[in-house]
Amino acid sequence: MRRFLLPLLFALSALTPAISSGELIVYRGTRRDNYNGSGHSLTVLSRLILIVDHDTAQAARLQYESVNGVKRYSTSQWTNTHFVEVTGTRVTYTAIARMLTPCEIDSGATGEGIYCKGANATLTLNTNSTVFFPKILSDHGNGLGHSQISGEPFLDDGSFQLVFDRPGTLTSNQAGETLDAAFARFTAYLESLGYARQ
């Protein structure tokens, strides 16, 4: 019996798809922001690239657009985040959520904010490497800001949708890129297209 156990375990491990650990998931999509304030309104359509490190739950976001002929991009890093799985009636969802800070906890806050959410699906991250994670991520929200020029308040009503970029994901993972390396590669790509950091 013992002599058959080792070959059986080896065969099962070779035939079972690996669950990724530390691999990247790349998404591409669009964002729409409607700004209203100071008697004016403006709608800005942007493109997004989101790179998620599945092992650490950290992410990097690149947003780029052309407004009045000016090509610009901005970046952000999502740290202090984690994945929250929620079971619905027919599907399981995952949200990329921001953990509360100690100050927020001390003030009595109990809810968490989310960056985005989506219904889970099986995604191929690399050769023989899959994960159960959203194929489409989205969010919608409202914000209040102040003009850097006049100080006047403005409202921002924004939404975005991101779709799993299988070719981009495979390229990153087959190259063994870290989150920082993939972020640098996509940033260089945008700059090669004439986009300038905002």
Instruction: Give the rounded overall mean pLDDT.
Output: 88
Shape descriptor: globular
Portion of residues in beta strands equals over 45%
Could you state the order of secondary-structure elements as H and E?
HEEEEEEEHEEEEHHE
Please describe the biggest sheet, giving its number of strands, its sense, and whether it closes into a barrel: 7 strands, mixed
Helix content bin = 10-25%
Helical/strand content category: alpha+beta
Low-confidence stretches: 4-21
Annotation, overall tally of beta strands: 12
Description:
It is a single chain. This protein has 198 residues and is an alpha+beta fold. Helix content is 21%, strand content 54%. The protein contains four helices and twelve strands, in the order αβββββββαββββααβ. The strands form two sheets. A seven-stranded mixed beta sheet has the order 10-11-2-3-4-5-12. A five-stranded mixed beta sheet has the order 1-9-8-7-6. A hairpin with a 2-residue loop joins strand 2 and strand 3 (40-53). The longest helix has 14 residues, at 2-15. The protein is globular. The N and C termini lie far apart (66 Å).
